[in-house]
Design goal:
mainly beta, two-stranded antiparallel ribbon, 3 helices
Length: 174
């Protein structure tokens, strides 16, 4: 079963204060052009998105520097007080703050996301660990490991990108 973890992009959606507003405009339609086409204006950290280390650290790796396989893999929903599994992506439904950094680093996560504080996000990115922000439906995933896919747009030297984040919850069942 696939679970969509992405916020739909809309004209009236909330964005981080100071970020560009989302504008989606239909510029071609079937009546005038025999096809539809929309122009999108948005920031690279709009809606459900991935953050490259360069988002918060000058000279750090950009989306172009990261291999595509960094944006998918086995993941698990975890709680701040629990033991973190090693080597997989970790997602928090409950608030996770900077105090978790040593334990997270010890777990060597592929990526981290969900309800993480800005300080924790900044520290993870400093360590080269990509983060995912503004995920929805994480409570539907359950506690078992699952396959996560959150591929960015191929933005040259990008600091981040909107993603279509998906959990495949049956991928690891026997």
């Amino acid at each position: 079963m696939f679970i969509d973890l992405s916020i739909p992009l809309t004209n009236d959606m909330t964005v981080y204060e100071g970020d560009p507003a989302v504008t989606i405009t239909k510029v071609h339609n079937y009546a005038t052009h025999t096809w539809e086409l929309r122009q999108l204006t948005l920031g690279s950290h709009t809606g459900t998105h991935v953050d490259a280390p360069s988002h918060m650290h000058k000279g750090a790796k950009t989306l172009s520097d990261l291999p595509i396989e960094r944006f998918c893999g086995v993941a698990q929903i975890v709680k701040p007080h629990e033991l973190f599994p090693c080597g997989c992506g970790l997602f928090f439904i409950e608030a996770a703050d900077i105090t978790l950094l040593p334990r997270l680093l010890a777990a060597h996560p592929r990526f981290v996301g969900g309800a993480i504080s800005e300080m924790l996000e900044r520290a993870l990115l400093a360590e080269g660990i990509i983060t995912y922000t503004d995920l929805i439906n994480l409570e539907k995933v359950g506690s078992a490991p699952f396959m996560f896919y959150g591929f960015p747009l191929a933005i040259a030297d990008g600091d981040g990108s909107p993603v279509r984040a998906v959990a495949h919850v049956t991928a690891l069942t026997k």
